[in-house]
Amino acid sequence: MSTEKLEKSSPSPLPAKDEIQITKQENAPGSKVDADLGAIDLDHRALAAAASNEHAASASDAIRTHFSAFMWCIFICMGALLWGYDAQVGGGLLSVPSFRRDFGSIYEGQPVLAARWQSAFNSVSSVGGIFGGLSLGAVSDRLGRRGAVALASVISLGAVLIQFFAPAHNNGMLLAGKLINGYSLGMFVSVAGSYCAEVSPLALRGITTASVNLWIDLGQLMSNGIIRGVGERTDAYAYRIPFALQWIFPVILLLGLSFAPESPWFLVRRNRNADALKVIERLSSGSDADAQLQLQQIEETIALEDHFAATSTYGDMFRGSDGRRTLIAVSVFVLQQMAGVTFVLGYSTYFFELAGFDDSNAFDLGVGVTAIGIVGNSITFYTVNRFGRRFIFKWGMIACTTVLLLIGFLTISSSQAAKWATAAFTLIYNFIYQTSIGPLGYVIFAEVSSAKLRSKTVGLSICVNSLCALVANIVMSYLVNPDEANLGGYVGFIFGGLSVFGSIWVWFYIPETKNRTVDELDVMFEKRLPARAFESYTIYEEKA
Q1: Rounded CA gap, 443 and 446, in Å?
Q2: Which residues contact 70 (CB under 8 A, 6 or more apart)?
Q3: Residues annotated as region Disordered (predicted)?
Q4: 41-542 belongs to which CATH class?
Q5: d(Cα 426, Cα 109) in Å, to the nearest integer?
Q6: Residue 176 burial by Cβ neighbours in a 10 Å radius (0-12, 13-18, 19+)
Q7: Alpha carbon distance 189, 522 (integer Å)
Q8: What is the pTM (predicted TM-score) of this model?
Q9: Which of 234-248, 487-501, 527-541 comes out lowest in average pLDDT?
Q10: What is the pLDDT of residues 192-229, one digit of tens each?
């Protein structure tokens, strides 16, 4: 944004450096944080000016002035497509006869894949994702955000190669490829959230971080479409083609990374301030003064964080205000599983079959569920800035809870009308989920972490996401399968009950991060504000 726009948006000239104060919270007057902030040799005028500049910009203004930043964020998020693709291709290939024939056995004239191999094939990527997420902090802080994406791309190419050439009945080789690929997928999703949060201007931060979930949905839709197109082949290419097509996106990423800008936050932390300034100038169409102001904001924010905690280790994620921030970042993915996403979406085809659709039509409706998710996620690009993170996540949890309980109650009846209603509610649930807690999870976990710990915190969050998905997939098979608990739709009561507690957790712990710069969030977390106070709290205020 130009200096002229900043002046027009400011109600009065910015005060001198020593006239800026940090507003005291009523329940914490004279707190240590206030005293500390007064003792730090920071240019609060720069922080206040940068905050005013960013708050004044609308999303459309930000896209126009930071179009390059917007497009590079979308590009880096492409790696998340592979996460969604891999997750969906697992269940999809289990429906392909030639895959079951080559990696299973013939039972009563039909190709069958043993239950233990089904479970391993569906969950081994999540195991790899756990280690990929955990390692991102060290990799990203050493190689940069671009370096982490490059490493993940190379690993993914090798892992897909292993899967493609796995000979029939060599299940171990196939699982090894899935495990290694899962490692790269955990890194892809983690670094996408970090990069978007650091490169995007404030007005675009919610949109670009929500794009991570959109790319995941696109990957799932792409996987479903490909398996639908080639799954009826009788040769090995019925499953090798879906594997091979995963090569496309790591290659595109590697080709584009040579032109992609590095995160200016990473560069400043490596004392490469001149390079950071060049990146800032490249990512926006603003004036030189705007770029200098943004660089100064990054420098002062890092100085503020270093004052509160001079180190940046994994242990720091669990201490003080950073411990609270880590808990919030991790909890959004736990809440997604408590809201029953694996139950409803993972078994949507099962509910369609119960409603009377044949296998082919049930699969087509499963593809439709994914398409509805993409539409819902696209709506989030508007609502995330209009209504805020806390509001959408809270009401999304409440709405998902309601749908889950309705599915449970409908299961009590064995009528065809009840089965149709259950199938319809899977569509409604997916739309609600993908307009709220699905994409908002990726927004919140990237925004609440401090700049110095962001790569570590988002990596741990993706690790927890993978672990929760792993546990949910294992538990669900025992709850739903006819030869086990055989609860069917009654599982809606279980996840509905969990979601009630999840909704209460959201009320007390998920803060509003909309329109908050990094330094503003740092101050509010250090002041230990309750989550519900974040939205109305004033940070920089002129003295009377």
Answers
A1: 6
A2: 62, 63, 200, 204, 207, 208
A3: 1-31
A4: mainly alpha
A5: 34
A6: middle
A7: 24
A8: 0.82
A9: 527-541
A10: 988 998 898 888 888 999 999 999 999 988 888 888 78
